[in-house]
Amino acid sequence: MDEIPRDQLSGALRRGAVKKHVAAIHVSGKLTLLQRKLSNVLLLNAYDTLISRTRHQIDARTLCLMIGYNSNDMDTLKQSLRGLAETVAEWDMLDEKGQQEWGVSSLLSYAKLKGGVCEYAYSPALAEKLHDPKVFALINLNIQRRFTSGHALALYENCYRFVRTGSTGWWPLDLFRRLMGVEGSAYYETFKHLNAKVIKPAVAEVNKTSNILVTPETRKQGRVVTEIRFRIKENPQLAILDVEESEVARLGLVYSRLRELGISDRLARQWLSSHGEEQVQEKLDYVESRKNVKSMVGYLTAALEGNFTVVAEPEPEVAPPSARAERLRRILDAVKARTPTQRDADKRLFAGQLTDSRMREDFEKHGWMSPLNSARIAAFWGEMSPGLLEGLELQ
Fold it and tell me: Which domain, by its residues, includes 172?
């Protein structure tokens, strides 16, 4: 979609030095909030093959879900794509040999919709710049989707790329107005109006919404403000938003099986840390193979804390993982096979079907391993991937 994105689209690349690397690309700010989000989603979708392929594709329905469009509103999507093709990206920087390089390109060289697929491309020169983490930083979609103001998202994008240098450096006000998309407006030629209507609201939303904190500073000639810069530091309270959505899945299938049994997130992590994944899996397999166990959680706790051994039991072998665990394994494999953009859209689509606040909160916290939504998740993926859960019967 970060925002891109983060999720998907989502990822994050940075750096800064004496040479003018990070944020060397400036994109005209005359984009709507949805167009700006669309631009980030398209970039994240194309990023891995940005240099090796000249054309990129994404399912139009997935794209609409990622951006928040009605999936049937193709006219709005067409209008937004047209806006990106008409938007200018400009760079002015030093190359590796210290030579000055200036360039300009449309943000998209073309885009088309056909057969439910959006195809698009970047100019070769722009693709090279966008793919270089020293020049351009992707925005995490988990952060991007929280923004409600186009000015705030534009400010965040242009500040985030300097997070490691701590400051944007001084921008002439004319450049800042262009980045915010308000150049050419007589009203915003007055700094008082620019500050009240653009700078202060945008700074407030960035600091409240994102993983960075920004502080504006101005420089004057006489009594007239002529330049502005933003001090930047990480926002520790919202740094978690910069974690990839696959972070929980990184804990593995054993963690997922524990959560399916109703083990709390904190306890599951503690057991894995204390006993190791291999030992926990051994005890989990053992407990799930037992018959007529009234409390699986209680028995597993005793097995771990009492260090029961599987070989001490009369049964010759451990039963295979339960149907519930196998179902979850297949679902997580299906999720992993999706692109970051598709994964983000899948989550948005499923979350939109949850009307109960407790279930929504549990899904937001645990994703596809949400205990409260396990049955709904299975039904959702059964429809998404026919045959995925074939042969599994939950008791």
Answer: 25-239
pLDDT digits (tens, 9 = 90+) for 336-380: 888 777 787 788 888 888 888 888 888 887 788 887 888 889 888
- Domain finish residue from 182, 214, 239: 239
* Residue 211 and residue 264 in one domain: no
Q: Distance between CA atoms of 174 and 346, rounded to whole angstroms? A: 41
Residue 134 sits at φ, ψ, to 5 deg, of -75, -20
The DSSP-derived string for 335-369 is HHHS-HHHHHHHHHHHHTT--SHHHHHHHHHHGGG
Number of H helices, E strands in the chain: 17, 9
Q: Do 232 and 350 share a domain, yes or no?
A: no
- For 102, counting Cβ atoms within 10 Å of its Cβ (0-12 exposed, 13-18 middle, 19+ buried), the class is exposed
What is the spatial distance between Cα 29 and Cα 154, in angstroms, rounded to a whole number? 7
Q: Which pLDDT tens digit goes with each residue over 128-178?
A: 888 887 777 677 766 777 888 889 999 998 898 888 889 998 999 998 998
Residue 46 CB-density burial (10 A; 0-12 exposed, 13-18 middle, 19+ buried): buried
String of DSSP letters for 15-52? ---SSS-TT-EEE-S---HHHHHHHHHHHHHHGGGTTT
The closest of 298, 240, 232 to 16, measured between CA atoms, is 232
Which strands sit side by side in the sheet containing 88-94, from one edge to the other?
Answer: 25-27, 88-94, 100-106
